[in-house]
């Protein structure tokens, strides 16, 4: 691997360094990265690792360069989106819910292969890699073939966030909440995940209400056809469905209060571990509170569907993306946090 983004020392500036990437094992694929999205999970993991050096990134898109000896269904030269790792064998994987794989933590967050071997070295020393089975803040990534979804000629900077952020937002609508025409969806937080959910719901003919404090994000949602307010304390209509992308306990409570009887709230944002829920109200009004990981999606099915909607003009995902060079990680993060970029995507070739 010619270069990678090395994240270390908590919130210290990132650095572009030379790194060594292992050869593919029989079930693995070597992918030249063309684009990789920046996600909140990358930033949270970077902070949690403290001084431990790491190559993160889990929304990669690139071109297959080499195939392991046992890989089928992929060819050198294929453009692929890289999504989360899953075993493909446990009950959750076999039933079409790989985001809840029994080995999810080991495969995505251990920093190494399941057998404990590293995939990335810097100056000869192993570093935290295999993040979400890829570590794609780099010019190349080593990935299990199961995580590769062929995407054809779609622009890589549009396709990359379908590995996680856009997949989560769209999947939460299509797979979990499933609103239809005549329903009204509340989206709390209009970052990349929330706005992908907004676009998906609108493409389904659903009325959408957005609560988002950043004015530029409200304007974007309004331009797409949603009603946008700054806070859940603003006057709002009742809703049939709600999606929380913030993980803030007080917002969960407010969103539940806005639901009509038999309404559903799905939670995709990681926040404090505890929230105060009125269980009696939940029961008496027949409400549902659902957790949702990665949009409860089978990437090999949902990613092509979302790309099809994009190509037909029903899902203008390109309007959510701002691109940066691979060495501009810190600038991309700063502009995303400031609300100047909705979805930052790094381009290793820039």
TrEMBL record:
Entry keyword Metal-binding: yes
Q: Which Pfam families match?
A: ADH_N, ADH_zinc_N
CDD domains recorded = benzyl_alcohol_DH
Q: Organism's domain of life?
A: Bacteria
Domain Enoyl reductase (ER): residue ranges: 10-346
**Mind listing the UniProt keywords for this protein, alphabetically?**
Metal-binding, Oxidoreductase, Zinc
User: Which InterPro entries does UniProt cross-reference here?
Assistant: ADH-like_C, ADH-like_N, ADH_Zn_CS, ER, GroES-like_sf, NAD(P)-bd_dom_sf
Named cofactor requirement(s) = Zn(2+)
Q: Which PANTHER family match?
A: NAD-DEPENDENT ALCOHOL DEHYDROGENASE, S-NITROSOMYCOTHIOL REDUCTASE MSCR
The family line of this record is: Belongs to the zinc-containing alcohol dehydrogenase family.
What name does the UniProt record give this protein?
NAD(P)-dependent alcohol dehydrogenase
Q: The organism's lineage?
A: Bacteria, Bacillati, Actinomycetota, Actinomycetes, Kitasatosporales
